[in-house]
Amino acid sequence: MKDSDDMESRKTPLRYEYQQKIRSGKIKKKKKKLRFRKWVIVVFLIFFLSIFVFSSYKLYSWNKDNKKVEKIKEDTIENTEVKEKEDTENTENVNPPDNKDNDYWNYIKMSLLEVNFRDLVAKNSDTVGWIQVKGTNINYPIVQTTDNSYYLNHAFDKTSNDAGWVFMDYRNDAVNFNQNTIIYAHSRYNGTMFGSLKNILNSSWYTNKDNHIIRLSTPTENTMWQVFSVYTIPKESYYITPSFNTLEAYEEFLNTIKGRSEVEFSGTVNINDKVLTLSTCQDNFGNRIVMHAKLIKKELR
Which of the following is catalytic: 183, 227, 278, 281? Predict the structure, then answer.
C-alpha cells in the first residue's frame, strides 16, 4: 500500500508540471494573438487614415483647380468680345441637301458667332478658336499645341491645373479644317470644360432641335456645324482619325459614326462634308462621350 502511495505522489508533481506547461503555452499563444490583433488594428487605422488624408488632399486640390478655372473662364468671357454675326454676301452655305424638309434649312437661318481674338492670342498664342455648344455650358476659347497631353493638366493661362482646358487635336489644321477636326476636354463633375457634354444623351437636350448646332469661330472664319451623331463608346482611335487616304475610307468612316448614334437626327452626311468631333471621358473606366457635327455654314473674316 505504501509503495502505491509513493508512486502516486511522484506522478502528481509531474502531471502538475505538465499541465502548467500547457497552460503557459496557451497564455503565450493568447498574448501572441492579442499582439497580432493590435498590429492588425494599427495597420488598418494607418491605412484608412492615409486614404482619408489623400482623399482630403485630392478634394482640396480638385476644388482649388475648379475655382481657378472658373475664374479664368469668367475673366476670359468678360474681357472678350463675343457677338452674334448676321449673314452677309460673303456667307456661304456648305453642301446643302436636296431635301427641303431637312433641318439644315432651318439651322442656316441662325446667326454665326464672331469673336475678337486679339486679346485672347495676346494672353495665349496657342489660341485657335472659340466654341459654343447649344444646350450645354460649353463656351470656351480653344487652344492647340504640339501634342494632346499638355492641356490635359494646364489651364488657358498655361498654369498647372488638373482641370485642363479645351483643346484641338495637334494633328488638325485650325485654318483649313481636316475631314475630321477633333476637340477634347475633361468632363468635370461641376460641369466645367466638357462636363456638360453628357447633356446630349438626355431627352431634354436632343428633343429640342435648336440644340443641334455648334458654333465655332476662328481668327480666319466663323462657322456653324449641324449635329448628326451622339453616343458613348469605349476608348478607341478610329473616331478621332483626322484624315483618310481615300474617299472610300472616309465614306466608311462617316457611315460608321452616323450608325453609332444613340439618337436619330435628320441631318445626312456624305464625303463632301467636313466633320467636327467633340470627345470627353464618360467615366473612370475609359468610356467616352462623343458628338459629331458637319459644317453647314461659314464666312471668311
Answer: 281
